[in-house]
Amino acid sequence: MLNVLDSDSSKIADLLVSQIRHDILFGILATDLILDTKFLSIQYGGSTSYLIEALERLEDEGFLKLTPQLLYQVMRPINNDTSYVLESRVEIECEGIEKSINNGNIHWHGMVIQAHKSWIDSCTSATLDPRQFALDFEENIRLLHRKIISACGCTRIINQQEKLFQQGRLLRISVIENPDTNLKAYALLASDLVSFILDKDIKAAKIALERLIYYI
């Protein structure tokens, strides 16, 4: 059991989300399993209010879905909303990257370069051991995509991109862990994207970004 009862109250939901997410990813909480707060309280500790907050966040991330009976159910890695999420991400992120390239300065370029460096480091680790480093790599993917639209100057774009990105998280992790996924080819796509951003080539950057989104 995760000992959260004596933790700082501001961190309890974060701890619950992290542990439940981990157990979903590693099959401890099986696909289609219905989760209720009584069961979760026994397994992980925490009050009902914190458990509900954790479940809501995991639903936003795409790990759980709310059934017609208003119960939370563990999701399959691939669902019928995949195409919609990817298409929506392409649309919103391409809009964001165009605005960011037009608005961005040297400081923004530096943030993109640093995010890409961290991305490459985590990609290298994931290439060697996908299962162990999938979560870390997926987080660095999120950070890179967030940075490349961070200069767009539009809160709507940033918030919508973050929501869409979270919805596809479980699928991305399953793709990273798949031994047939060519992460080296994925890394080349990311490097091309960053080069186009630094060259302020909006058309090429959009094409590279779309390829990157559909790859993982």
Give me some keywords for this one.
single chain, 216 residues, mainly alpha, Arc Repressor Mutant, subunit A, Four Helix Bundle (Hemerythrin (Met), subunit A), 2 domains, 3-stranded antiparallel sheet, 4% strand, globular, disordered N terminus
Low-confidence region ranges: 3-7
Strands side by side in the biggest sheet: 1-3-2
The total strand number stands at 3
How many domains make up the 3D coordinates? 2
Rg from C-alpha positions?
A: 18 Å
* Element string (H = helix, E = strand): HEHHEEHHHHHHH
Question: Count of DSSP helices?
Answer: 10
- CATH-assigned homologous superfamily of the largest domain: GntR ligand-binding domain-like
So what's the oligomer here? single chain
Structural class label: mainly alpha
Largest sheet entry: 3 strands, antiparallel
At the first level of CATH, the class of the largest domain is: Mainly Alpha
Helix content: over 70%
Question: How do you describe this structure in short?
Answer:
This protein has 216 residues and is mainly α.
What would you say this structure looks like, in words?
The protein is mainly alpha-helical and 216 residues long. The chain has a 3-stranded antiparallel sheet. 71% of the residues lie in helices and 4% in strands.
